[in-house]
C-alpha cells in the first residue's frame, strides 16, 4: 500500500475504498460504517485495501 493510500484510508475511508473497489457493495458498506463511527470505517477500509486486488 502506498503512503497516499494509507493517508486516504485514515482520513477519508470511503474515498480509499472507492479507489480500490469502485462503486459497489464494499463502498456502500464503508460509507455506512463511517457514518456509524470513524473507526469502523477505517478498519473496514484497511481490510479492503490490504486484501488482494478485485480488479485484475
From TrEMBL:
The keyword Electron transport does not apply. GO terms for cellular component: membrane. It is found in: Membrane. Its main location: membrane. The chain crosses the membrane at residues 27-48. Belongs to the UPF0057 (PMP3) family. This is Stress induced hydrophobic peptide. It comes from Hyphomonas polymorpha PS728.
